[in-house]
Amino acid sequence: MPATDTSPLADVLRTAEAWRGSGRAVALATVIETWGSAPRAVGSHLVIDSDGNFEGSVSGGCVEGAVVSEALDVIETGKPATLEFGVADETAWQVGLSCGGRIRVYVEPVI
């Protein structure tokens, strides 16, 4: 019997595949760059469906809400977006990383 991949990425991809298979529109968010003490490593993923459901993590809960909101726009428009979060940007008082680091997240539609 072949081994089943139980990595976080495999979980996110299985969820994306299941959601797409059921007819849901889906976006994938990926950490593409970090600075300082970012809570998730480059390559961490979050998958979001058109109802705002999500699986995975790009920040350990610090900015997931903002990423989900942007992902809904990406799903609607079909245009990818790059987001940046940290303590020194204009959203620091609305959305920030409690650890003080910064992250850049790429959000793209899954077709």
TrEMBL record:
Q: Which domain of life is it from?
A: Bacteria
**What positions does the domain XdhC- CoxI occupy?**
19-86
Q: Name one Pfam family in it.
A: XdhC_CoxI
Please identify the protein, giving its name as recorded: XdhC/CoxI family protein
What is the originating organism of this protein? Roseibium marinum
Q: What is the lineage of its organism?
A: Bacteria, Pseudomonadati, Pseudomonadota, Alphaproteobacteria, Hyphomicrobiales
